[in-house]
Amino acid sequence: MGTSMTTRMPGRADEASLVSLGEIKELAEVGRPTVSNWRRRFAKEVLGTGGNGRMPFPDPVGGSDSKPLFDAGDVASWLDLRPIPDAEPEEDGTVPTYGDRFRRGLRLRGLVALRHELGSEDRLIVDALAVCAMAGEGGDWYPEYLPEHLLEDAENADPRVVRAVRDLIEELGSPAAAADTVLGLAERLESDLTTDTTPLAVARLISTLAGPVGVLSSGPDHPTVINLCAGTGELLFALDSIKGRGGIVAVEPDPLRRKLLLYRLFAHHCTAVDICAQAEELDTLRPWEQRELDLDPDRPWGIPSGDIVLADPPYAAGEREFDEGGPLGWALEAVNRLKPGGRGLVVVPSWTLSRPRGTTPTPNMRMREELLSRDAVEAIIQLPRRIHPFRTGAEHALLVLRGEAAPEQRGEVLLVDADRIARRVGGAWTAYVTEVVDAGRSPVDEEAGYFPVSAAGPRADTLLDGRSVLPAHRLASKEQGLDHFSATLDARREAAVALPGLKEWIGNLGIARRPEDSAVTHRKVGEHLRAGQLRLLAGHRIRESDIGDAGLMVIGREEMLGALPLGRRRIALEDLAEYPQAQTTERGDVFLLAEHGVRTLVDDAGGCVLLAPVQGLRIRAYRKFLAGEVLSDEVWMRPHPLSQLLAAPRNQHRGSGSLVRRVSVRDMDLPELPPEEVAELEAILKETDRQRADVRRQLAALDNLALRLAAGVADGDLALRRRPGSA
């Protein structure tokens, strides 16, 4: 709760103290309708008739009728009477008001405006944090204990910044809150600091998984915390409590961030935290208890390992995959720095986990397999997409690492899809994920599950099989809470009622439960591709100018989504000749669009050209089957079953990607069915498609009739009347 601003008489306000309705909305952090409602409901004319002693909304003191201007002090005093709903009380028991929020926003606006006069957002932030650090450490009384560069920055700070920050400290009640608020202005100041800031939700999750590191606040046995990429300290300050604690080490190579982190620590009264420029300095860093208490002088210097090791380094999408110092190098460094029984928490780009092993393993793949084979990975948590507001094109995961695995957890890793969890539970996802990690399971199977690192057998589903280890690609299960037998009987009954002409055919569909002793196994599409049973057809990029209305049919995203009818777009053979890599499809190929779900379509004729991102899958044995060269029971899969099984819910859920959700075709799976079941399913699905096509033609005919009737009446050319005696 801050002190009220001096209220000026109307007509005597200077321009700096005037605010518009839009600025009131922004500074009070409410919607524009709220401000308009305040002004209308609490106008003098309205309160004059109703009374009740309520204070009217301030009158304009300038501007025009279309854009009135109000005295900021008058507005702040009026907003002081309005508590913020559901706000937590302050330490003194008072409830924050919109006036507090408005006044704070007004001060911050003035601070941000100084950036243009200083000419540098970094200079403004350094000056402001230097003032906070001096206030936090009592620099006016004990300057001899402070770093020289802090004294120099505080001495050279712009007087206007000093006044604004001191007012902010008084407003917020502490130098620590003021320092955190100034760093929160980095985005408004257009500072590059924001691009590397750990999002609050991720910092909260890491803090919870790290455990109560601040419980043991003193003594030589409290947990040692190492932050390998500290930035401006978001992960450190998210921990349970670091105030007055030793045994905390931050590594930050950037000089500016290192300085800001130190000043922020001083503002929080945290002087027992060491800051290094490189991780190698940890090996020569002298422990605080030796420096302050001079305990055990024969003990070697250095803090080479910790109970908790954190890292959220700055990454770019696809960066350094072929570099030995790639992103997973941070995870290896964290593992090497962990004490037995310790825990590491490292944020990595999800591509480091999803790239498959090629013929020549990349350094990224080698590091991934080293982490897994060393049993150093406790859990892989796929974070919600777009979790980093300034890295919208990248997806991230959190690796939970261990110094030593418990006997019952050796040889397995917990995969957690926090993206799916966040879509289901909303903002409570961090607490839910923590519970899942602690319990080792989730009520929804496709959200979490243990996977073996290695297992016997050439077809074992393990994390060292060279495929993606991203949770969304590995986790799949039956639809939860659904009895497929009952649901299918209900669907058959509804179809018979809706389509009485097909009642006999629908009734002849035999549906039975599969015996428990004949469980179905699944194989990844990638396995079928490697075995030569399937062939993947890539989509092509063709200039729009080469696509017309004659020639071979073109199948692109629009056709798969139903936005364009099949056959509307075509390409002439002479134009196709300019694309030597372009291939045409064969009869029985399956079109596949794996964006925002899975959509499939069977090519019943062949001779189509696929446009990226549409892909195709070809059953290699099907062409010989059509030619009569192989028997029916020798064909392991048919086109229509392949199409429907690929689009099943268990594959729809495997999407990943920050901007466009894509499903990895190779990570989809298919059930292994006997040839006779595949043939029966093919016959049923082909007939179902034929009946659906008939119904669609009927609907299209009715739609066209309704269109022509409405168009004729609208233009005044038709007069409609039903024949006598018609119903």
UniProtKB/TrEMBL annotation:
Read off the PROSITE patterns from this record.
N6_MTASE
Q: Name one GO molecular function term.
A: DNA binding
As recorded in UniProt, coiled-coil segments are 678-705
InterPro entries tied to this protein: DNA_methylase_A-5, DNA_methylase_N6_adenine_CS, SAM-dependent_MTases_sf
> What are the record keywords, sorted?
Coiled coil, Restriction system
In terms of superkingdom, the source organism counts as Bacteria
Tell me yes or no: is Coiled coil among this UniProt entry's keywords: yes
The stretch of residues making up the signal peptide is none
Pfam families in the record? N6_Mtase (PF02384)
Has keyword Coiled coil?
yes
Instruction: List the GO biological process terms.
Output: DNA restriction-modification system; methylation
**Domain DNA methylase adenine-specific positions:** 323-421
Q: Under which name does UniProt file this protein? A: DNA methylase adenine-specific domain-containing protein
Species in which this protein is naturally found: Streptomyces griseoluteus
